[in-house]
Write a structure and sequence with these properties.
There is one protein chain. With about 425 residues, the chain is mainly alpha-helical. It has a single domain, classed as Glycosyltransferase. Helices cover about 50% and strands about 5% of the residues. The chain contains 17 helices and nine strands. A hairpin with a 4-residue loop joins strand 6 and strand 7. The longest helix is centred in the N-terminal third of the chain and has 23 residues. The chain is globular and about 50 Å long. The relative contact order is 0.12. It binds alpha-D-glucopyranose. Alpha-D-glucopyranose binds next to helix 2.
């Protein structure tokens, strides 16, 4: 094994807190939803039991209505704001009250496909399947109550891309007043120049206050929120997850469940089609409050390929857009179009390369007949991690690693790319 793979495995082991993995020590001291899906896939390359455990621990945070929260606070920590008191939810173990991109069914399927004939894989998958189904039902009921085919994201944290320029216009309408005093911990761990700004945090917390005030009731949240977006990444990841759940349903579910999932797949496929933006040459978000498309290209806009939701023409155009970006930066895939005035190569989701995005984008490029570009994205990802270590993210202009060190999901992707 190369040093870098040994290091990746050691990173996952070191961030293990007893069956669940923290994204990184101190900066993120709990279990995060989509991080853990990637972490489970990473563990599956060398410890199947531990991979299943990651998913089982995340599901301990699932609510009765099917919501899978974005954070599960398994054990207290003072290193992170906002903690359980600010969320004010009633679940045990404590959780946040919003969600994150639903990668979990895709992770479960990958794990089952590799482990199917070994150990207790059948029994463990059979136990997980109903929770995944309940979660996908929640997405439709809570986030697409009018059955438009697109699910809504109600907080930038739900997109996993906290300060993406895709949210700028919509966030400008969110008040900066909060009833919760803001006590940021992140800027004590990391250079503030790399983190979301103060005013972003005020708006993030304003939204949390707003949802807590309606007792986390999905219908009231949907109605009350000043931020309601159709995110091309969340919708594409959900569509891909539904496809993976359908395969699992053929083994673990009933015929009516398969038909139900197929119905949601049809709806989401049509919905994502409406996010195609010909001016940008990618899928872009739409503001559902005033029905306005976002006009800046971000890496989220490549994930329709991962969902196999693109026409031949759209795939070719999206690949051309990405090739254009490659002419401006040394490493793919920058999280924001490097030609955009919003591009900031070190500030979180406004420019840096994120390994998990690269993994999904490369899968999507392969699925849409762009193997060379897929290989380029994978090679860049490996080169970045091997040079800088499993950092939180990377500067696309010079490859420097930034943010938190010894990051779990980056390590997980390094392991997946070795296979
Ligand atoms: C940040 C990222 C989010 C991730 C979390 C834990 O909030 O924006 O995507 O899940 O950190 O790594």
């Amino acid at each position: 094994m190369t040093d870098s793979l040994t290091d990746a495995q050691a990173t996952l082991r070191a961030n293990d807190r007893g069956g669940y993995t923290v994204p990184t020590a101190r900066l993120y001291p709990f279990q995060w939803n989509w991080d853990s899906a990637f972490v489970a896939m990473g563990f599956s390359t060398f410890d199947e039991d531990r991979a299943w455990r990651e998913i089982e621990r995340l599901l301990q945070g699932q609510w009765a209505d099917g919501l899978l929260p974005h954070i599960v606070f398994h054990a207290p920590s003072d290193d992170y704001f906002p903690g359980p008191d600010t969320w004010g939810t009633t679940h045990t173990p404590p959780t946040s009250g919003i969600t994150q991109p639903p990668v979990l069914a895709t992770a479960a399927r990958l794990l089952f496909d590799t482990a199917m004939h070994r150990g207790d894989a059948q029994a463990r998958m059979a136990a997980i399947y109903p929770a995944l189904l309940r979660n996908h039902r929640w997405w439709q009921q809570a986030r697409d109550p009018r059955r438009t085919g697109l699910v809504a994201t109600l907080h930038p944290w739900e997109s996993g891309m906290d300060n993406s320029p895709a949210w700028d216009r919509a966030m400008a309408r969110v008040p900066t007043s909060t009833s919760t005093p803001i006590r940021r911990r992140d800027t004590g761990h990391i250079d503030p120049a790399m983190r979301p700004r103060e005013v972003d945090y005020q708006r993030f917390i304003h939204l949390v206050d707003c949802f807590r005030a309606v007792a986390w009731d999905p219908a009231r949240m949907f109605a009350a929120t000043p931020f309601r977006m159709a995110d091309p990444a969340t919708n594409a990841i959900l569509l891909r997850a539904e496809q993976d759940l359908l395969v699992l349903a053929q083994r673990f579910g009933t015929a009516p469940e398969q038909a139900e999932i197929a119905g949601r797949i049809a709806g989401l496929s049509a919905g994502i089609g409406t996010l195609w933006n010909n001016r940008v040459g990618l899928w872009t978000a739409r503001d559902l409050i005033d029905d306005t498309p976002v006009e800046v290209g971000t890496s989220a806009g490549l994930l329709a390929l991962f969902a196999r939701a693109a026409s031949g023409e759209q795939s070719a155009r999206a690949a051309a857009t990405l090739t254009g970006w490659a002419g401006r930066v040394r490493f793919l895939v920058p999280s924001t179009d490097p030609a955009s005035p919003c591009f900031e190569p070190l500030r979180y989701w406004r420019g840096p390369v994120w390994a998990v995005m690269n993994w999904m984008i490369a899968e999507g490029l392969d699925a849409s007949g762009q193997p060379e570009l897929a290989a380029r994205v994978r090679a860049d990802t490996v080169a970045l991690i091997d040079a800088a270590g499993p950092m939180e993210y990377f500067d696309p202009t010079d490859g420097k690693g930034a943010g938190g060190t010894a990051f779990s999901w980056t390590a997980a992707i390094r392991l997946l790319l070795a296979n």
